[in-house]
Amino acid sequence: MKNQDLLQLVEEFGSPLYVYDAAKIESQYKRLTDAFSKVEQFKIHYAVKALSNISILKVLKKLGSGLDTVSIEEVMLGLHAGFDPQEIMYTPNGVSLEEIENVAEMGVQINIDNLSFLEQFGTKHPKTPVCVRINPHVMAGGNANISVGHIDSKFGISIHQLPHLLRIIENTNMNINGIHMHTGSDILDIDVFLYAAEILFETAKHFKNLEFIDFGSGFKVPYKKDDIETNVEEFGKKLTKRFLAFEKEYGKPLTLAFEPGKFLVSEAGFFLAKVNVVKQTTSTVFAGIDSGFNHLIRPMLYGSQHYIENISNPKGKERYYSVVGYICETDTFANNRRISEIHEGDILCFRNAGAYCFSMASNYNSRVKPAEVLWLNGKGHLIRQRESFEDIIRNQVEIDILNETVIA
Ligand SMILES: *Cc1c(COP(=O)(O)O)cnc(C)c1O
């Protein structure tokens, strides 16, 4: 997408604005399927939580993707977008057994990540195929919040509990059709990931009726210039080789599955915000934008570095700015960042705004959520209206307090 296109979209749909480039989602999807083209049964389940707009789900459906979901609401969104239940994987953590049973009843593939529920579910529904989430205790990932495979992690059934797991399956006679791991974000060292995969293969040998092995996600995408990223092509080559060998050993064809969120949509997203004020202080120059962590919380929550460009003045002389929001709490998007000279009214463009940006937005400070636009075949399509004040008060129930005589 060109800067001119983005500026035009802000003109048309207002600021702040999320814009998603369908072509980038498609090229990322292709990159991954190409890397695993030698695997006969390869399946991608897009992780809905990264960006859950129904039109985005439809783009992924069109590409041939399935979905990975973590709540019954995400399952319902997927069904609404036109996915078949069999194309949806449900990988919750800490939800009620009742919710898992309800999702299973819809015909969705469930993935259970604790022994207590596995035993209860298997006893009640021994025929329903179930995937089990294994925690291989391999530390992959650069950030404690998104590393979910290590020893203290609440996710998955510990590999050290395998004997107990197998006993439950034997006692209930339940049908385990898949095994899964998701070690967290940021596969930087491919060999570390392959090591975790090796543990999963070793575990898989204990199950006789597997149809698939799901390796979760963890593809790192570049966030800043010269940032490191997962070498998907090399990774594909190495894991394919190992997978095909395992398949032979296992003695029956298996599906190799992944469930990427960030990899598919992060770079497709642009967040556009207007500079309300340029504030020169004795120590720094603040560029205050018409947004805050209510719309994009990743820099404050994870310390993520989103590349920021002043698309109103891309060729201007670079100066140092602290880009901040309008929330009445410290909400710094970027500290001392070199950006081409900013004037009040300029539009700043945040890159990598596809994953975990809009989907984490809130109404804090009673602000409305931004509109979303899908850029498809050279044209911008509104795929979510900007909220209005009506949305802020919609579910509030007003009671007659002003006419009460006493408030004790
Ligand atoms: C969040 C999540 C993903 C997606 O992770 P990304 O880093 O966005 O690719 C995949 N699987 C599960 C189970 C998840 O919870």
CATH fold title of the largest domain: TIM Barrel
Tally of DSSP β-strands: 18
Mean pLDDT: 94
Order of helices and strands: HEHEHEHEHEHEEHEHEHEHEEHEEEEEEH
Low-confidence stretches: none
- Could you say which small molecules are bound to this protein? pyridoxal-5'-phosphate
CATH class group of the largest domain: Alpha Beta
The helix content is 25-40%
How is the biggest beta sheet arranged?
Answer: 9 strands, mixed
Layout of helices and strands, plus pairs?
Elements: H1 3-13, E1 17-21, H2 22-35, E2 42-47, H3 54-63, E3 66-69, H4 72-80, E4 88-90, H5 97-105, E5 109-112, H6 115-124, E6 130-135, E7 157-158, H7 162-172, E8 176-180, H8 190-204, E9 212-214, H9 232-250, E10 255-258, H10 262-265, E11 269-280, E12 285-289, H11 298-302, E13 308-310, E14 318-324, E15 332-340, E16 347-350, E17 371-376, E18 379-384, H12 389-393
Parallel strand pairs: 1-17, 2-3, 2-10, 3-4, 4-5, 5-6, 6-7, 6-8, 8-9, 9-10, 12-14
Antiparallel strand pairs: 1-11, 11-12, 11-16, 13-16, 14-15, 17-18
Helix pairs in contact: 2-3, 2-9, 6-7, 8-9
The structure holds pyridoxal-5'-phosphate (PLP).
Pyridoxal-5'-phosphate (PLP) is lined by residues 47, 49-50, 68, 70, 91, 182, 185, 216-217, 219, 259-263, 355.
Attribute tags:
Lyase, Ornithine Decarboxylase, Chain A, domain 1, TIM Barrel, binds pyridoxal-5'-phosphate, 18 strands, 408 residues, eight-stranded parallel barrel, alpha/beta
